């Protein structure tokens, strides 16, 4: 029973980390797009 909880905990942790990583990459892309727009305006 305890082993199952540990496995579920690790799966949740890995999913959380991968979601945060994906969000971080999206934010990075958005920042690049914003700086490109700023360069065109400037």
Describe this structure as you would to a colleague.
The chain has 42 residues and is mainly alpha-helical. 95% of the residues lie in helices and 0% in strands. The radius of gyration is 18 Å and the shape is rod-shaped. The mean pLDDT is 94.
* Count of DSSP-assigned helices: 1
Strand content: under 5%
**Which segments are poorly predicted (pLDDT under 50) over 5 or more consecutive residues?**
none
Q: Decide which structural class fits the backbone.
A: mainly alpha
Radius of gyration: 18 Å
Listing every helix as H and every strand as E from the N terminus to the C terminus, the arrangement reads H
The rough form would be described as: rod-shaped
Strand tally, please?
Answer: 0
Cα separation of the termini:
61 Å
Biggest sheet layout? none
Helix amount: over 70%
Jot down its keywords.
about 40 residues, single chain, rod-shaped, mainly alpha
